[in-house]
Structure formats: C-alpha cells, structure tokens
Amino acid sequence: MSGTILVVEDEPAIQELIVMTLKRAGHETLRAGSVEEASKLIDHALPDLALIDWMLPGASGVELTRRLRGNPRTQSMPIIMLTARSDEDDKLLGLDSGADDYITKPFSPKELNARIKAVLRRRAPEITDDIVETNGLMVDPATHRVTGDGVTIEMGPTEFRLLHFFMTHRERVHSRTQLLDQVWGDHVFVEDRTIDVHIRRLRQALEASGYDAYIQTVRGAGYRFSKP
Amino acid sequence: MSGTILVVEDEPAIQELIVMTLKRAGHETLRAGSVEEASKLIDHALPDLALIDWMLPGASGVELTRRLRGNPRTQSMPIIMLTARSDEDDKLLGLDSGADDYITKPFSPKELNARIKAVLRRRAPEITDDIVETNGLMVDPATHRVTGDGVTIEMGPTEFRLLHFFMTHRERVHSRTQLLDQVWGDHVFVEDRTIDVHIRRLRQALEASGYDAYIQTVRGAGYRFSKP
DNA sequence: CCGGCTCGTAACAAATATGTAACAAAGCCG
DNA sequence: CGGCTTTGTTACATATTTGTTACGAGCCGG
Questions:
Q1: Where are the CATH 3.40.50.2300 domain residues in chain B?
Q2: A4-123 domain in CATH 3.40.50.720?
Q3: ipTM score assigned to the predicted complex
Q4: Domain ranges in chain A with CATH number 1.10.10.10
C-alpha cells in the first residue's frame, strides 16, 4: 500500500518530520513550502493524496484546497488538512473547504499514518469480487475460496490470483510478461520463468479435481485457460 | 447496504445492464443465463436476493422460482421477477409462483434499485441483529453473552465484538484492515498485528466448546468465519 | 539426426505471514 | 487506593509462500 503524497508545509522542521514519517510508511513524497510551489508541482505530477498545512505564507491552505477541488485533474484527490488550531470553527472550515480529513497539531506519526491509510482506503477503487465459474470450477474472491465440483481446492495466494485472472480472461493466450503485469503488478521484478513454476503449482492444486488440463501451454507464446 | 444478488437473464445485453446497475449500487452479483446455470450456482453460494427473468431458455423463470421455494435452503430468499409482458395475467402468475415483487421491462436503473432496496428492507430485520446463531454457537448482543451448546463462554468485550461481527458476516474473508474498521472503528489507531492477538484470544475462548476451528486464517488475505 | 529453444519439475534458500507468550499501560470496580 | 481484567505491542517461534536455479524432456527447423 504505497503512493505519492504531496506535503505542503512551510515550517522546514515539521515538513522534514512529516516526510520522514511518510517515507518510513513506504510512501513517496513531494514537498512544497507554499501554495505556489505546490501548484507548480501538481502541474507535472499527480499525487495520490495531499497533506496541506492550514497556515501557509501567501494564499492559505484552504485556498489551495479550493483550487485543487476546482481543477478537474485534481478534483478527486484526497486531501488532509493540518491545523495547529483546535477550535471547532477551523475544523469545520477545513472540512467545508473540501478536505477529506483534518489532523490537529501536534500529532503522532502513528496518527498521521492511520489517517492517510483511512483516507486512501476510502478512495480505493472497488474491486470486483463476483464469483467466477467454469464447468464446476469456482473462484470466489469474497470468501477467497476455490472449489471444484463443490470440493475445496487449496492453493497459495499467488496461485489464487493467477487462477482468478485466468478465469476472468479465458480463451486468450497470455504471455509471461502480461501475466506478470496483471497478476504480480507492473512494478515487481521477477524472472519470467517464475511464472512457469506458479503455473505448475496451480496445475498441481487443480489436479486432484481434474481441472489441471484447463491451463494450457501455448509454446512460444504463453498460457491460456480454456476447456481442454 | 450491500448484498449478493443472483441475476438470471439470458439476454447478454440486458444482463450486463442489470449487473452494472447493481454494482453501482454496491451489490455483488452472480450471473446465470439459464435455470440450469442458476441452479448450479446456488448449490455453492447463497445469494441474498434473486432477480429472475420471466422468459428463459429451457425451464422458465417461474419454474426456477418454484424450485427455489421448494428448497429449504433457498425457501426464504427474496425473489424479484423481470417480465417483458405487461398484461395483468402474467403479473399475477409471477406473484403466484412465489416471487416477492415483479418489474416490467423496460425499467430504469433507479426503479430496479428502489425495488431491490424495498425487498431487502422487508427481509432486513433478520439481518439487523438479535441473537446470532450458528451450529449451536450463540451470540446475544442484548445480554452480551456467548454460549456454545448451551454452555456459557467467557471472553473480553473486544473478542465479543469480533465474534459478533464474524457471525453476522460469515463466509467472507475480512482483511485485518477491514476488521479494524468494522470492529474497532475507523478512527482507532492500532497495529494490524493486534488483530492476530485478539483472534488468538477469541479462538482460545471458543476452544473449550470446540468452536475454535470456525475462525479460519486465509493466508495473505485475512480471516474468515465459517464451518470447518 | 543434430543443435538450439522452450517448457516441466524438483530442490532450496530467502522472504513473509501467522501463532504465541510475555509484558506494561490503561481501565474498572469495590 | 489497591487488586483484577482488558488491551495493545513486541519479540520470538513456526509455518507457508515465493522466487531462483539446475537439469532433463520434448519440440522444431535445418
């Protein structure tokens, strides 16, 4: 669970502290010390979330929030407001201005991370978890279960994802590279041959129920899921 | 307000439209193009509601409805009938066959959602929560008491809430993060691993009555409550 | 029939995830 | 104010998964 986070904070010490906290939690960071700087950064990169200090030199954080909300490109970017004041009015103003959440300084790294996690989670795209079925072979993402003619089939997480992908993309041949992108993720670096091993493990798991022949090798091209 | 809805519709375009509408409303879906397919799906999963087209290849929708009503497992499942005909006779027949409601095509997504909501709401009381029971394991929110085959089981408040959540959301896998949100609350900041400890404590409490195996670990995904 | 590839498999070591126990802080109650 | 329970955290033990590699079998064009 990582993402790029824009930190808009004019106080260097606090900015540093925040950035450190975020990095430790596995996030990438973009720093800005003012509204202008932030705007410029956003022209070239689109963060997954913005952490904006309430008090900023020049235009205030509220102003920046309004701007972000006004721009179609950044309209739906989650925003968390940082405020030193704790009176209710400010909080409400921050929320009204379009922020998704606010944190009152001083705050602990733990709290910061939790809020970020919560906000990102709220925006997380709904994963489709419809049950997929083919000839008695059933994959249910909601219960994380695979059954062959009603009998539970055990397999590791990777094999599960692999099978799910195959079953939602049947008949087509998928190259090893494609499978890596789709099942492992764009960013991960693993050998192509690793796929073969997982294919083997998946086949082995399906073997007991007799569904192993559904995963076919297409020499020189990749693998395909389809009725034998 | 979510639930799994079985869509039985042979016309692909209409099926797709319906599924889209349902998804947008936050429901999970199961698709079937015929009575046979629907029957097979129901053998392995129990939807919260069924949307059945009147005209289907092979056995008709009315026939499917009768079957569902005849099976104890699906006896009380709400059913909404989709019909292209608008004459009164058909409507009455549909209702007589055991459907809870009927919708005449063409229908708007809004209407579909409204009807579904209405039907589900009618059934809601049983979900809302009074005493929850599974195979002799009983959780009573009113008295805050858990019994296994009649014998009281002692546990801490957190374990109680955890168990209650599990029992009202069986079968599904819940990630540690989801559990934190649902059982602890959005705003609480605790480590993910804390869940494991409470799971352990809950299992330990249930152990004496032999219900500990109901809480299953799904490696890489989270925990699930279901019959062993 | 001979290389040259591609794929299937098994074995292995490292990385991860989960189970458990112990501990200290925070609550709770009489 | 003590005792007692509940909680969250951590460290360590186990268990499982994952990625790599090495080797051999099968396929194919020449």
A1: 4-127
A2: no
A3: 0.71
A4: 132-225
What does the block give as tokens for B167?
A: 């029992």
Angle formed at CA B104 by CA B101 and CA B110, multiple of 5 degrees:
80
With tokens 């006896």, the residue in question is B75
Mutate to test the interface with A, among B173, B193, B215, B225 (most CBs of A within 10 A): B173
Buried b (16+ CB within 10 A) or exposed e, A180-202: bebbbeeeeeeeeeebeebbeeb
CB-closest option in B29, B30, B219 to A157: B219
Q: Hey, are the CB atoms on B173 and A114 less than 8 Å from each other? A: no
Q: Where in chain A is the domain with CATH 3.40.50.2300?
A: 4-123
- What string of pLDDT tens digits covers the 228 residues of chain B? 567 899 998 888 888 888 888 888 888 888 888 888 888 888 777 788 889 887 777 667 777 877 776 655 666 678 887 765 444 444 444 444 556 666 666 566 766 776 787 667 656 444 445 778 899 999 988 788 899 998 999 999 999 999 999 998 889 999 999 899 889 876 678 899 999 999 999 999 999 899 999 999 999 999 999 998
| Sheet with B215-218: strands ordered across | B173-174, B222-225, B215-218
CATH 3.40.50.2300 describes domain B4-127: yes
Residue of B nearest to A110 (CA): B189
Q: Is the CB of B220 under 7 A from strand D?
A: yes
Question: What's the CATH code, domain A132-225?
Answer: 1.10.10.10
**What is the spatial distance, in angstroms and rounded to an integer, between the CA atom of B201 and the C1' atom of C22?**
14
Chain B, nearest residue to A131 by Cα = B30
